[in-house]
């Protein structure tokens, strides 16, 4: 018998799992069809998927389940028989019957879970389901085709649903699901589950992958993408923490929004430091859709917290508004107005070149800023890239202004 109350988390989570699971491992409330769990290695994705499927089956919410991995063997070894797989979540004497030769698990209440390898997606043609769990979809050879066949068969019951647990990779299907209004996305990092992971594992992966493109994907669950024609590519955005935070100069740059309502642009606020090794480090991105009073307070707080040398702000759009707001909060802030006399692309190109030459680093992944950088295509991108603009003003002040040009000349030799 199918329940119509699957939206209620309290009704669908077994007490033992609810007691130990982190909030991000519990099914979201609301009206959704797909639960996309994008998480780093070791987050507990498999346990989350298996516990959710088990809990729903035990309470007879779902009866016909599809378990899908890249291959049949991977489904069996990870999703079914793995340490965090479905079978090992049951107490002795309560396990469902697993029939490897038939590729199915059978429960006493009549529920049946069938195993499918996405490489042979045609086998999904014909069967019907009310629930599906897909694991590591991002590495499928034919993810779109497997998804299409599953969706055609996910048609039983009043509320068929799909759980996707995967480490993110920049494939079109994941990007499509992220934009789907009927998909709820949970993101999590490897480090959220560090209490349940070996310390040697944590130390090794941090040493090997922290600050790398692969680390952003595999540890921090960032969906990386490359866009042809973009001034910035992911490969030139390097993550690194300096050995000694010996800053020669620190700047906060502001690209102010001229309005404040739901459809307003964001106010770009980016903090960049120039180190004594003549490299720049992006320390923080405080950008967002803030009210003038809010972003003013954020800027002043960051000014003193980072011991900033100067605040610079573009005045083409906001006139002297920015200075008035900053001065009303703290008149002691060092401030300089900047005015755009060249086009956005002309200003951004030398900054993108500094990234390519290895002169700029981010001390940690800055998802929104980095996404905006990598999606900005001159002549095509219509939306004002506020975070990008603030970054360009900060780095221009540090590298390209008259007082800093000797450093740029030295780097170009």
**Lateral strand order in the biggest sheet:** 3-4-5-2-6-7-1-8
Quote the average pLDDT: 86
Instruction: Note the beta-strand portion.
Output: 15-25%
What do we call the CATH topology of the largest domain? Rossmann fold
Poorly predicted segments: 1-13, 402-413
What share of the residues lie within helices? 25-40%
Oligomer: single chain
Number of helical regions:
14
Radius of gyration of CA atoms, rounded to a whole number:
25 Å
Name the CATH architecture of the largest domain: 3-Layer(aba) Sandwich
Using the alpha-carbon principal axes, give the shape: elongated
Structural class, please? alpha/beta
Termini separation comes to: 74 Å
CATH superfamily of the largest domain: P-loop containing nucleotide triphosphate hydrolases
